[in-house]
Amino acid sequence: MRWKVVDERGRTxxxxxxxxxxxxxxxxxxxxxxxxxxxxxxxARTIVNRLKTQGPLPSSNTINPYRGxxxxxxxxFARPTHAYLELDxxxxxxxxxxxxxxxxxxxxxELAPNRCSxxxxxxxxxxxxxxxxxxxxxxxxxxxxxLTARVRTLEARWRQRxxxxxxxxxxxxxxxxxxx
Length: 180
Prior knowledge:
By secondary structure, this protein is α/β, with parallel strands linked by helices. The protein has helices at 103-110, 133-136, 140-162, 171-174; strands at residues 26-29, 38-42, 48-50, 61-63, 66-67, 96-100, 122-123.
């Protein structure tokens, strides 16, 4: 898999392609309603993906808290992306789900006031953010909460900038109309 590999002496091993994630922080075999699934927990380095070209999406920024999808749609356009992780798109895309366990915290950091311009973000462009994995690892609700809070902050800032400054009141207009 495309993880940062460290040998027994703690040295990083050279890989043919750069690592997408540090070594997995956990692995969990699904039981009960999650039987047949394997969850690989990783610490994402970033959570907002900035696309080089916008394409058909309404935004050039995307968020995907999971890699792989338990819906098991054979026609899914995202299947080939599992090969990029050195996983089999045909057999592991719908059974081996990579969970970015720090997605909410990463998003909060990436949307910090001086790091975010307020551009739109498309969510779940590569896999469904409400797949079965969400029942075990509820990341989507946390991501939506962080995005909502950020939008409210930006809206308040924009409203404040749009308010006209109160006009100065001159002494003559404060006395009322003058007349004969």
